[in-house]
Amino acid sequence: MKQAVRKDLETTLGSFLVKDLTEPHFDPNWHFHPHYQLFLVEEGTGTRFIGDSIKPFGPGDLVMLGPDLPHLWRSDAPYFNPQSGLTTRGLVVYFTNDCLGTDFFLRPEMHRLRLLLNGSRRGLCWTGTTHDLAVQAMRGLVAEPPTFRRVLALLSLLDDLSHAPDAEPITSAGYTNPMKPADADESSASSQAYRRMQAVHTYVLTHFHEPIRLDTVADLAGLSPSSFCRYFKARTNKTFVDFVSEIRIGHACKLLTSSQLTITDVCYNSGFRTLSNFNRQFRDVTGQTPSQYLKSVQSV
To answer: Where are its TM segments located (predicted)?
Structure first.
């Protein structure tokens, strides 16, 4: 994986930061920061990396992240082409644990909110009724001027999310961020090593539909193949082979739901060389066969 940069967000006169993002593509850097984050994708598609989770994203993707949880919304390749005319849009809210005072979230009345904040350290997403209500609340929050009413709107949104029964954790239960704030120091040796890995991350996302040789990516990282495998597993909580497989399966899921390609065509367009291997790895990642997945999506 490429370096997870500790991101310093701009200061604001308000208690929290609200942004309406419109860019050719989302931030391509794997990063983390000391803020809680609510993020809604309004426009754009790609692959979402959060901790040790890899999932495709599209319009409506809504997540909440806890402090120092590494993440990246990597837009699909066409968004990086200046001639494509494509645009990404998103709504994002950043706030800290002490944004309303050092002890605010420690008060007895904040018990449910504390549970939500603790749960967000694994990342949380919503897809049901809660998702639809939260999307409307976030749009209203962005439109609200920075007054006391906006503070109330944020607390109301967090309260609704804290009582929602359909929150789904994103990372695995045992995941912890292996990067430390010091790793973001550009002069540190660890930071320089992480920067070498950026090339690996970009290479895989660009070439996942082709055969990928371990010695090629290890060379990009400046490591031997065996050292690279250990390094990668220690920092991503998964093997490099699993990482490539999940990216390919994520792409396959997008093709199955957004194109008229057959399952066989999806297999080869996603970088797999045999249908049997594709079916096996698809089931390992999603818990379903490609045909089962397609039927479940079409029934929604």
So the answer is: none
